[in-house]
Design goal:
Elements lengths: L8 E6 L1 H12 L3 H9 L5 H9 L9 E6 L2 H4 L9 H7 L8 H4 L3 H4 L2 H8 L4 E9 L2 E6 L1 H13 L6 E8 L12
Parallel strand pairs: 3-5
Antiparallel strand pairs: 1-2, 2-5, 3-4
Amino acid sequence: MTIPQEKLAFVRRLTWAEVFEIWQGNEALRPNWIAHFQSRGFTTWDAWRMTYAVPLGLPEREWALYEVPSPLVNVPQFRGGPFAGWVKRFYDGREAPTFAELVQHPSIQQHGGVLDIIARFPAETIVTGVALPSGVRIVEGMHRSCALALAAARGVFITTRLYIALGSGDEEQLPVVGQG
């Protein structure tokens, strides 16, 4: 996996089990996510998220943890993940917009969840992505990434230690996943 050294600092290798555990820790016990996966007919967070992980080839990828220096500079250049709901609502025909592009959308600028995250951004957090030739695609942490990009666009300073669990990838694009 080729990583621009000025954008990411290697911390250590990860297994898929560790990556899935990080993802689970970010979402599985949050009431909004529980309601979301149950509304889609799933009884567990794991079963629901594996319907995303498997088509994206996440369990088969090589993984590493990186620190993201200057998140307000670097995250806006990351690209949004291939989620049907995001594609439908916010991508405006673009296949993989950057977060700098995404936060120009009026609905993102007014999104209550994104605005709440800006107001209470965690001191330390981990998002998940895949390194493709076109750039880093976020597969977990879309709202936090939008919050950082929107804060940057508005000149709002956020202090955080941001890490990314990054999977290897050489494909040009990822398949769209989710029900939208």
